[in-house]
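Query form — protein Aminoglycoside phosphotransferase domain-containing protein

QUESTION: What is the three-dimensional structure of this chain?
INPUT:
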Amino acid sequence: MSTSLEHLAAVAAAGVPGLAPVAVGPSPDDDADFRSAVVLDAEGRRWRVRAPVTPEAEVRLETEHLVLRSFTPAIRSRLPFLVPTAVATVEDERLHAVVHSHIEGEPLGLDALARMAAHPDPAHHRHVPSAEPLPPLSVQLGRVLAAVHALPPSLVLDADLPSYTAGQCRERRLAELRRAEATGRVPAALVGRWERVLGDDAVWGFVPRVVHGDLQEDDLVISRGRVRGVTGWTDLHVGDPADDFAWLIGARDARFAAAVLEAYAGTCRNRTFRAPDADPDPHLLDRARLDAELAVARWLVRGTDRGDAATVADAERMLAALERDVSRAARGAAGAAPDGTPGPAGTRTPGGSGAPGGSGAPGPTRTPGGSTLPRPSSPAAADTEAPDTEALDAGAVRGAAARAHGSAARAAPDGAPGTPGPAQGRSTTR
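ANSWER: The structure tokens for Aminoglycoside phosphotransferase domain-containing protein are given below.
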């Protein structure tokens, strides 16, 4: 498939009656499985055209197109953000490109979002008469997540998209762990750490909700300090709300995820909001942390399945870094007093052991995104910024996470509980 900007503009013109392109520019915020462009028409409207590079990417694109068509005006009116409008599909060299409405703004990196939340630009928050002052970015993100989780399950079921019980979500994570363990390349300390979380019944006693499913910073359209839109709707399903918090775990600032969760909980408590829960379950960030760490295991499995030595080596490097952080946390926990006060090493441990599930929080830990995992498992504990302890190239490791999220590695293994059937045979990635 030709992927020049001019060709993509022609695809958009073919799909949208009356569209007369006058300018076209790149849309670089897509992953490597797509070629994208933003087309400006003669009436000053902007359209985004996306062309898949592989058949797998085409399936993901068709899924997103189906989801976007399911967002009725009534549903869109309930959301504090914009969702692209699906306009057309165009067959092009045996693959199908899609045309969506374009939302003005740009994605920002995770740490840039955290900095914006902690230190907002006064110009963005200047009060405008008759307009509500702009809330901090962490509050906006909490509201975004609460609104997604309050969507009616019928949106998913009517589109024949997957729906998982809490038990199936747990079994899918366990299946991911076993597949990674079968490679013989996952350190035993990490296997034990993840097994402790998966074996804790209290952690998995949540109520499934509608979730975005593959939310990342690239899916947020930011303009002047405001979350204007959310994209990447290829994995909408009913499942674990923690899935939509996992990307936050990669921020270097340990306060960011906790601040978003606090805003999320505050939104759910608001009686004027059609909240899914009065309060999020207390183990939401524990499961989000597990998901973030298992992203490295999924990356390993992807490389192993494809015989890609470079990907396997990349994953092994990240797993080794994660194991070192867990070991340091365990040593710090051993030197801490039983009441959690700093021990000889000066390390405060909210719990005890290094398991993220309920028996204690580890020290700073790397995700495939290249940042440290926050130490606390509750907002009250999030009072310090996690130090950048690993001598890894953050950009390179974060790039590996993006590749892992943009692959079929995130899908449940064949035959695993909760795996989509033939009618739902869609990738669970963006």
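ADDITIONAL NOTE: The chain has two domains: 5-101, 110-424.
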